Amino acid sequence: MLLAIDVGNTRIKGAVFESNTLLGHFVFLKKDFKKNIENILKEFPKVAHLVVASVGDLEKNDFSSFNERVKIHFISHENHFPFTNLYETPKTLGIDRMVLASGAVLRFPKQHRLIIDAGTCITYDFVDQEDNYLGGAISPGLRLRYEALHNFTAKLPLLELGSPKNIIGNSTSESIHSGVVNGAVNEIDGFINDYKQYYSKFTIILTGGDAVFLAKRLKNTIFANSNFLLESLSHLFQYKIKND
Ligand SMILES: Nc1ncnc2c1ncn2[C@@H]1O[C@H](COP(=O)(O)OP(=O)(O)O)[C@@H](O)[C@H]1O
Ligand SMILES: CC(C)(COP(=O)(O)O)[C@@H](O)C(=O)NCCC(=O)O
Ligand SMILES: [K+]
């Protein structure tokens, strides 16, 4: 049994898997991550492996206290991945993006894939049908957009994520919601349409904390899978134990 942990820049997500079947799902913050992981390990005594992908500020050493209880697999650039990395700066590519690309290759073989992860940042990753990882884009996520508008202006309030009533915002709040939400929706639809000019057919995977909220609003029909990164960690683990 496996506990997969995804350390993002906003939250930590965890899931317990038995042969790629998800048995439990958890979300917590960095400040109480040790207690949370201990509780999960108590709840699932059969967990023997801990696999971690971190782009947040938790390092391999932060997990060493679990060493006696489970075998720790901290994903790094040195691991084997099931794709050819054509990024010009492979060492600076986010581990989360490498895990997403791996999941896309392992679960959707022999096709072009675009993975969109709407978390702290919105990341776009393209892996072609020959399993070449080409790169993509990084833009601010929804929460980050609300915070940036507030933090870098004198007059804009900090709003919680909300649905814009209209494309034309008729108040400060409505203008902000339209700018953030309609802006991100148009960005994602725009990227997808741009990619279609280069690749006529590709599989789109939408994941991350804002995936469900965004999927409903896109012109392109895409099903959100909020657990894709955790599921990819489980698939990569199966691949890794066979290949490392
Ligand atoms: N309870 C929550 N706390 C923080 N963000 C949340 C929460 N629920 C949904 N979100 C949304 O999730 C996004 C962050 O997604 P997430 O996948 O957790 O990010 P990361 O993987 O970068 O930590 C934010 O833009 C925010 O709108
Ligand atoms: C772009 C990211 C900050 C996204 O992080 P997230 O939104 O998942 O928390 C992360 O993938 C990262 O730190 N990347 C390094 C730069 C790169 O991928 O080129
Ligand atoms: K992301």
Task: Explain what the structure shows.
By secondary structure, the chain is of the alpha/beta class. The protein has 2 domains: 2-74, Nucleotidyltransferase, domain 5; 91-232, ATPase, nucleotide binding domain (Nucleotidyltransferase, domain 5, 2-Layer Sandwich), CATH 3.30.420. It has helices spanning 33-43, 95-107, 142-151, 172-198, 211-215, 228-243; strands spanning 2-7, 12-18, 21-28, 49-54, 71-74, 84-85, 113-118, 121-127, 132-140, 203-207. Strand 8 (121-127) and strand 9 (132-140) form a beta hairpin. The chain is globular. 32% of the residues are buried. The structure holds adenosine-5'-diphosphate, the ligand CC(C)(COP(=O)(O)O)[C@@H](O)C(=O)NCCC(=O)O and potassium ion. Its EC number is 2.7.1.33. InterPro entries: ATPase_NBD, Type_III_PanK. K(+) binds at residue 117. Keywords: ATP-binding, Coenzyme A biosynthesis, Cytoplasm, Kinase, Metal-binding, Nucleotide-binding, Potassium, Transferase.
Short description:
With 244 residues, this protein is α/β, with parallel strands linked by helices. It has helices at 33-43, 95-107, 142-151, 172-198, 211-215, 228-243, and strands at 2-7, 12-18, 21-28, 49-54, 71-74, 84-85, 113-118, 121-127, 132-140, 203-207. The chain has two domains: 2-74, ATPase, nucleotide binding domain (Nucleotidyltransferase, domain 5, 2-Layer Sandwich), CATH 3.30.420.40; 91-232, ATPase, nucleotide binding domain (Nucleotidyltransferase, domain 5, 2-Layer Sandwich), CATH 3.30.420.
